[in-house]
Design goal:
This protein is an all-beta fold. The chain has one domain: YVTN repeat-like/Quinoprotein amine dehydrogenase (Methylamine Dehydrogenase, Chain H), CATH 2.130.10.10. It contains no helices and 28 strands. The strands form seven sheets. It has a six-stranded antiparallel sheet with strand order 4-3-2-1-28-27, with no helix packed on it. A four-stranded antiparallel sheet has the order 5-6-7-8, with no helix packed on it. Strands 9-10-11-12 form a four-stranded antiparallel sheet, with no helix packed on it. A hairpin with a 2-residue loop joins strand 5 and strand 6. It starts with 8 loop residues before the first strand and ends with a strand.
Length: about 325
């Protein structure tokens, strides 16, 4: 069977309490780990006939980052801590005070050697996944916006070959690093994902909320939301910009004319033919874009605001987590 966005169909929806903010999947399985707004990590086999949920308790705030690095599950949360989990005992194996402010994301290199955490202290930290030792700190983002308010370091992504790291912030500044050395290699800008209200709220909203490298590492996609008229709501269209980051050229501007809200997750297919964007406002969406033309291939309303998703190894199954629900879709074509 082939992977075909137009063959998208729902396999399963499963209600869960609270807001599921991040997701990790055990390889070659439907065993999921979900970070929740209640401070817990939940484990379950979503495709089991009667899924049984196990909770991992250790954080004191929203769990917003999860990564599997080899045999290690690591979570990051609002409390600024990283926790390495003993999955047999469902207990913390190691706890590190990693950031001075909210941890927004945790990523693992494909070989399981490195972990990267990003937080609102505007620092990306690279950790040895096995020992938990801090290897380096990467500082390439301003702590305050041009309007003198605190900025936020929302997301990170590692290239499929494990060589590159990208980080992105509230004002649309994206930095590309060499993961092994911590050397800054380049940067691109997505300023239209940042909205400043100088009159009513005197506040800003938006920012780059998701990043992904193409399979060959040449393209870097950034997801967020377009310019917002009313910053009390996510009242603007979802937005994706795709860059040739080495040339600092924008290749595509993928502004949705169908869905509003934040693009929370981006995934390239393994062949580099299409890009999947997911997110939402009060509802949720999946959007597949043709990378040769920038045109939409498939738009699908999701049953919830999607905060995170993963494709399986065949890229024929999508596992997603969001507001009060898990969902599974199939992309298996004829």
């Amino acid at each position: 069977m082939t992977t075909d966005p137009n063959a998208l169909k729902t396999v399963k929806e499963l209600g869960q309490p609270g807001i599921l903010l991040c997701l990790a999947r055990w390889p070659q399985s439907s065993r999921l780990f979900c970070g929740s707004s209640d401070g817990n990590v939940y484990e379950l086999d979503v495709l089991a006939e009667k899924p049984e949920t196990r909770s991992l308790a250790g954080h004191s705030g929203y769990v917003t980052g999860l990564a599997l690095a080899g045999e290690h599950l690591v979570s990051g949360a609002y409390d600024g801590r990283l926790i390495w989990w003993d999955l047999e005992q469902a207990q913390p194996l190691r706890t590190v005070d990693a950031h001075q402010r909210w941890i927004r994301g945790v990523e693992a290199s494909p070989d399981g050697r490195w972990l990267v955490s990003v937080g609102d202290d505007m620092v990306a930290r690279v950790w040895d996944a096995a020992s938990g030792n801090l290897e380096r700190e990467l500082r390439g983002h301003e702590p305050r916006t041009p309007h003198h308010f605190p900025s936020m370091l929302y997301c990170a992504a590692i290239s499929p070959d494990g060589r590159l790291l990208a980080t992105a912030d509230r004002v649309g500044h994206v930095v590309v690093w060499e993961l092994e050395s911590g050397k800054q290699l380049g940067s691109v800008e997505a300023p239209l994902m940042y909205t400043w209200d100088p009159k009513q709220r005197i506040h800003s909203i938006g920012g780059v909320r998701s990043l992904a490298f193409s399979p060959d590492g040449v393209l870097l996609a950034a997801g967020g939301i377009g310019q917002i008229g009313n910053i009390d709501h996510l009242d603007s269209h979802a937005r994706v910009e795709v860059f040739d980051w080495q040339k600092q050229e924008r290749v595509h501007e993928l502004a949705s004319d169908k869905f509003k809200g934040l693009v929370e997750r981006l995934v390239f297919d393994a062949a580099g033919n299409w890009l999947l964007a997911a997110g939402g406002d009060h509802g949720g969406f999946l959007q597949f874009h043709d990378l040769s033309t920038g045109k939409p291939i498939k738009d699908e309303k999701a049953p919830m605001h999607v905060h995170d998703l993963e494709l399986d190894e065949s890229q024929q199954t999508i596992f997603a987590a969001g507001h009060g629900k898990l969902a599974v879709w199939s992309l298996a074509g004829a």
